[in-house]
C-alpha cells in the first residue's frame, strides 16, 4: 500500500481499513477427527459392515492391522499437560511407527509444527489435530494432538534407540472399512474385548461438527449405540485390563 505525501491522514487510514477488510476474518480452522466409539455388546451395530449398512453406505475391501503400543522414555521437551504415546501398526506388508502428544489444550503456539523436533526423525508426515469424541447427543470431549509417523517395508521397524522403547505385550488387531471419508473400525483387544469406532476427518468448526452429528452420530444413536468416553490409545494401550 502506498500513500502519496499529499494525501491526508484520513485518506491513508481509509485505504488501510479497506486492505484489512480484504483479509480473512478468521484463521483457518484446525484439522479435526470426529469419532464415536462403542462396545457392540452394549448395543448398536455388531460389525463395521452392519454400521455402514445401517448408514446406507457402501465400503471397499476391508484392511486389517496389527497394533502394538510401547512403554518408552519420553523426550525431555514434552510440553506440560501432554501425554506421549508410541504406537506401531503393521498392514499389507508395511509397518508404521507413530509418536503422538495428546493433551487437553492446543500445542504451544511458540512451537510451530514445522519446527517441532519429531522423536522419530525428520519425517514430513506430521499433523496437529483436534480429536472430538461424542459421548452422547450434543455431548463431546475434545483433546488435542500433535503426531508424526514413519512408514517402512521393514516389518521389524523399531523406534529410535533414544526412546528406549519396550513393547507393552498386549497387542490388538483392527479391521477397517472405508466409505468416502468415513472410517469404521473394529478393534479386537488383548483381553478379548471388541470395540467399534466410526470416525471422519473435517475442520474443527461448528459446521463440520453439526454435519457429523447429523450424518453419523444421530443415526447410530438411534440404533442403541452406547458411546464410550475413553480414547483408542487409552483402551488399546492399557495392558492392565
Strand ordering within the main sheet: 1-5-6-4-3-2-8-9-10
Helicity range = 10-25%
Shape: globular
Strand content: 35-45%
CATH topology value: Hypothetical Protein Pfu-838710-001
- Could you report the average pLDDT, rounded to the nearest whole number? 87
Assembly state (oligomeric): single chain
Give me the count of strands: 10
What are the secondary-structure elements, in order, as H or E? HEHEEEEEEEEEHH
Helix- and strand-based class?
Answer: alpha+beta
For the sheet with most strands, the description reads: 9 strands, mixed, barrel
**Which regions have little confidence, pLDDT < 50, spanning 5+ residues?**
1-9, 11-27
CATH superfamily: Hypothetical Protein Pfu-838710-001
CATH class identity: Mainly Beta
Q: Compute the CA-based radius of gyration.
A: 22 Å
Overall number of structural domains: 1
**Span of the ends, CA to CA:** 64 Å
Give the count of helical stretches: 4
CATH architecture: Beta Barrel
Structure description:
This protein is an alpha+beta fold. It has a single domain (29-236), classed as Hypothetical Protein Pfu-838710-001. It contains 4 helices and 10 strands. It has helices at residues 9-21, 48-54, 206-221, 232-236; strands at residues 31-38, 63-71, 82-91, 94-103, 126-136, 139-152, 166-167, 172-179, 182-188, 194-203. It has a 9-stranded mixed beta barrel. The longest helix has 16 residues, at 206-221. It is globular. Mean pLDDT is 87; it is low at 1-9 and 11-27.
List the main descriptive attributes of the protein structure presented here.
alpha+beta, Hypothetical Protein Pfu-838710-001, 4 helices
